[in-house]
Structures are given as structure tokens and as C-alpha cells.
Amino acid sequence: MKFETILMATCFAFGTLVHADRPDFNDKEAPRTLGDFREIQSALQSHLERARSATICLQMGGGSGSAVIVSKDGLVLTAAHVTSKVDEEIKVIMEDGREFKGRSLGLNSETDSAMLQIEGDGPFPFVEVDLDDTTELGDWVFSLGHSGGFDKARGVNVRVGRLVRTAPTTVQSDCMLIGGDSGGPLFSMAGELIGIHSRVGASREESMHVPIREFQAHWDELKEGKFIGEGGFAQKSKPGSGFLGVVTEESDEVGLKVTEIWEDGVADKAGIKVGDLIIEIEGEKATKELMTNKLAESGAGDKLKLKWKSGAETKEETIKLGERP
Amino acid sequence: MKIITFLLAVSLPLAANSLPSEKRKNGPLVQDALSPVQVSLQESSAVFYSNETSKAFLYGTVVSDDGLIMTKASEIEEVESYYVRVGTKKYRDPVVVARNDIWDVMMIKIDAEGLKPVDFSQARDLAHGTWVVSNGATERRFRRPRAGIISANKREIPGGSPAVLGVGLKEEGGNLLVGEITENSGAAKAGLKEGDKLLKVDGSDIKDRDGLIAYLKDKSPGDKIKLTLTRGEEELTLEVELMARHKLYGQGKTRNDQLSGGEAQQSARRTGFPMVLQHETMLNRNTVGGPVFTLDNQFVGMNIAAVNRVEAFAIPGKELSEIVAELKKSL
After folding, report:
1. What pTM was computed for the model?
2. pLDDT, tens digit, 9 for 90 and up, residues A225-267
3. Distance (Å, rounded) from C-alpha B52 to C-alpha B174?
4. How far apart are CA B188 and CA B238, in angstroms?
């Protein structure tokens, strides 16, 4: 217990040292003079250009949300209810209109955090993350996002406010948000990323963000593409809903012989043909029973690694399952 | 395009650490620090009160020392009779003297002298993140300041001509034909029929679809035009009253509009402006029309639309000065 106290005190002192440049206006109850407003403004403006260039619009399945780049090679933080699935292709649009392909990594369905990787040649504009969790209740903050969807003429939409509530897995500000801002970044006046937009209250002045410490708590799992938790922000695909689109029968040769192919199904698209012989499923010897079991536990969007013989050739591919009709 | 919308939040646990409301961005303590700008709002804002309810329903911007006020046309039209306050003084008989429907502005004259109009020469472009101050809620004698920042690029907001016939138009074999007719439109009331072949508008030949649309662009809602057309063998001339686009077609009701409080909060007309500044001051349909100032009391523009939860539009000062000069010529 004593150890814990000392550790915390040390951390605090360290944090204070590192962030000695904490602006005065954050420690005032409220701005007292116009000078205080001007200081907030100049702090915000000094970081705005960089923050805007790293704030991106995500588009998938007819939906649109926001996100922010946190590394020069294109690692992105966003909200779980925006990506909604792991390992899904998502279109990335920069403020200047440039488009890239992105792929969702992991997500936490209980706290609404998610990661995505831009698949393109960097370096990408990115922002610093407040890894030391330096902000406090009442701090001035600013919020960015592609409110209502991408609008090149308008550009990224910026708003200012204060941190008005804090809880372990949520932080609340009075920066106003709207649909399309989901997944966008919340910044401290030091220009560091402190949260990701998640949801709003009935009042315009109630906005909830996922704090960065929540991303840190699951950083590696998110980066590895894990689907975390069983919360309401994203739903796992239903077991049994995955569809490969082949009919097979046990063969005298070792494996499963393909007797029918569903036109335009995922197997067809992967190049599997009638007469081919599936020899391995997920690295194991292919049997009818294994195939049935694997499909029963897989949902649409899940992956299945197959090895098959097509004529003299042997092919191997990880196939993303379609939706069972 | 579907927009990924927020889930309405469940309240945070009561144990959460919370900032008292007076210290929040729009709270009274923050507002108090804006008092040096309050002077400009006090002097150069007009407040419109309904005679029926005695409630303030709109602001105006004072543009001459002898009582010319600019405000939002589509909002003031909704109230039958009203009086005006500038500073602490009440003016009983405001008169509409001119309007511009492209910009959705109305020029109103009150019997006053020695007012302090906004200074158009101060208007300049402001960087994103610059604080601006508008009227928040009002008290009888006191204009409450409310702050926000410039939040996006200055730009045109598309939206089509403000006055519409209420018909679809199709070009077929060199003829311009009436297409689908919108219910309750001026065209429906005048008896236009689908398939009518349009020949002339107000006596001049109609060349094509674009020609007719260009002619309507300079018209105002309520204006009447004469359309000459053939229906079968018959040639007819019908008089059609034009209607406000936002009234006939509405502005759509998206999920974001619902999130923004709908009709009670949003301006009925919020598209179709040749140029706007965007800021994020928390306004609603009853708090637009007034001036916007910088922290240095420099005039920035006039609030013209409470768009949604996060966006407010203002006509930039330079454009407003040109509109005012043009309308003054017509007096």
C-alpha cells in the first residue's frame, strides 16, 4: 500500500516536470479577461494545422465517420462503432481530398475504441498522443471531425470547449459534436490527442469521448486485430453465418473434392474450380467433418486458410467468408 | 451518404468528477469575461419582439445611424407584427423597406437617430480557431454575449434559387415541358398540368430550361409571373405565384437534423448562400440576425443561419456591406 502511494507520487512529480508548459488558463476557474481567451486561441491555433491534416474521414458500406492518424506510417485511432468490424477494408479521405485504402485492425466493443491501418505509402501527417494522461477536469480542449460526412469545400470542422466530466473509461467535454464526427480526435491545448469522439447527450453541450488511456490499456490487442468484449459498440459476426460457396465430397485421394461452386461466391473469386481438391483447412488435413465444424463456428467476414490442388498446381489462400444466403 | 451517428449517451456514473455549469464554455463565468465585447452587441444589435407574445424571436444588425436594420427575411416573415429594441430603447413601428432573397435578408427601418451602426471597414478574413462573439439569449435591457470560434472554411453554400414554381422541367425535342407538379405549389394552384409546353415567361420567349431557371433566380417568393404555354391545341397564359423553396420543399430531415433539435432549433432556411463564414457559437433559429464581433470589437459579419448542432453561418462583413449598399439604392 505504501509502495503504491510512493509510486503514484513519483509519477505525479514526473508528469509535472515533463509538462511544465501547462498553460495558465487551464488552472483558472474561467477566463477572467479577454487576454485569457486570446491565450486559449493562440494555443489552439498553433496546433490546428497539424491536427487538421491528421484528421481523416472514413467511409465504408455507405457510412461515414472520422478518425486520426497517430504515426507517420499510418496507424489510425477511431471509434469501434465506426469501423464496426475487424479486418475490413475502409476508404480513407484526407482533408485535401486524397484517398487511401485502409484496413480496420482491432476494436473494443465495450468502450468504443478501435484502430485502423492506412495501406499506402507514407509518411502521413500525424499527431502526438498524450500518453502521460496529463489533462484534468476543466482543461480547455478542441475537437475535430468531418461532421456530417466529407465536405472538401468546408474542410475539417473544429470546435472548442472544456473537459466537464471524467470517468474511468469516458471523458466528457462541452465541445459540440454531430453525426459523422464519431471516431474523430479530441486534443489538449498542448496539441496532443487525449480522446476519440464516441457519443452525445440530448443537450448540445454533452459530448462523450473515449480517453487515450483506454486505448493504451489494450494497445497491442487492438493493433493485432482482436475483437475485444461483448459490448454494444460493435457486434461479432454470428457463428454459422459464414459462407464459402462450395459443395465438396470426401475423395479417395486425400482431401475434399469440389463438386459445385456458387457463382461469384468467395471460393469462386479465390479461383477454386469444380474438380479441385481441397487438401488442408487451417493447416489441418481436410475432411468433411473439419469443413463442417469450421464453417459452423465462423461468421461472415471471418477467415479460412485453405490449401488446394488445381490440376498440377497447389494453391494456398486465406479466404474471407461471405454471408450465408 | 449515411452518416455514422452517435448513440445517445447513458449518463456517466454519479461518482464522476464534474465541472460546475457556470464554468463551462457557455456558462455565466465565461460569459462575464466577455463584457468588453458586450458593449458592441448592446449598441449595434436590434432585438425583434412579437407583439402577440412579447417574446424576443430574432436579432437584427444596425447598419445606419438613422435606423436601418438588417435581419433574416425567412424568419421575420413568420411573425405578423413586432416591435424592436436597440440598446434599452423600444421602437414600435418598424417598416420593411427592402429585401434580398438570394441572401435571405430583409432591410427594416425604425424611427431612430444617433444609433451606432456596425463598421463594415473592419471586416477581414479570420483564421480558423479565432474567437468571435454573438448574441446569446437576451434580456430586456441587456444583450448576453456568447462566444465560439471560426470553425471551417469560408465558402459558398449551394441551394438553388430561393423562389420556385414547384414543377419539374424536361426538355424534349427542342421543347420545354412541365414535368411533375408539386402539391400546394404556385404552379399547382395556377392550374399547370404535366405535359404543358412552355413558350413564354412574362411575354419573353423561353429558350430552354436554363434560361427559365436564370429568369427565376432574380425573383422573390410571392412574386407573380405569367407563363404562356400550349396544352394540346390550346394556347394559355397562366399567372403563377412563386413560393419560397425552403417552404415548399423543406430542408430534408436527416438524422443529424433530429440530433440538432429539428424545427425548434434550426433555421428553416439554412442553404443557398453565395458566401458564409462558419463558426461554432451555440445559436438557434431565434438568435440569428445579429452582428458577430471579434474580441477586439471588430465587426465580422451577420449571423444568417443556425444550421445544426455544430454549425452556424454568418454573412461576411464585406458581402453584407455590398448588399446594404445595393438595397439602399433601391430606397
Report:
1. 0.86
2. 999 999 899 988 888 888 999 999 988 778 899 999 998 889 9
3. 53
4. 11
Give the start-to-end residue ranges of the domains of chain A.
22-228, 242-323
**Residues A122 and A74: beta-carbon distance below 8 Å:** yes
Fold of A242-323: Pdz3 Domain (2.30.42)
Q: 3-state SS string over A204-236?
A: CCCEEEEEHHHHHHCHHHHHCCCEECCCCCCCC
Q: How far is B149 from chain A (nearest CA, A)?
A: 7
CA distance A310 to A276: 5
Task: Look at residues B56, B42, B70, B67 and name the one whose alpha carbon lies nearest to residue B135.
Answer: B42
Pairing of strands A227-228, A99-108: parallel
Query: Would an 8 Å CB–CB cutoff place B129 in contact with chain A?
Result: yes
Which of A60, A158, A214, A233 to mutate to test binding with chain B, by most B CBs within 10 Å of its CB? A158
Q: What does residue B112 show for φ and ψ, rounded to 5 degrees?
A: -140, 160
Topology of domain B33-156+272-329, CATH: Thrombin, subunit H (2.40.10)
A179 touching B (Cβ < 8 Å): yes
- Least-confidence region, from B24-28, B29-33, B135-139, B162-166: B135-139
**Residue reference for cell 440576425:** B289
**Closest chain B residue by Cα to residue A83:** B4
Cell of B322: 455590398
Whether the Cβ atoms of residue B146 and residue B135 lie closer than 8 Å to each other: yes
Domain B163-246 has CATH 2.30.42.10: yes
The three grid cell numbers given for residue A117, joined into one nine-digit string: 491501418
A20 in contact with B at a CB cutoff of 8 Å?
no
Interface pTM (ipTM) of the complex? 0.88
Does the domain formed by A22-228 have CATH 2.40.10.120?
Answer: yes
A residues 286-305 closer than 8 Å to B (CB): none
The per-residue pLDDT for range B14-56, each reduced to its tens digit, is 545 899 999 999 999 999 999 999 999 999 999 999 999 999 9
Chain A contact for B174 (CB, 8 A cutoff): no
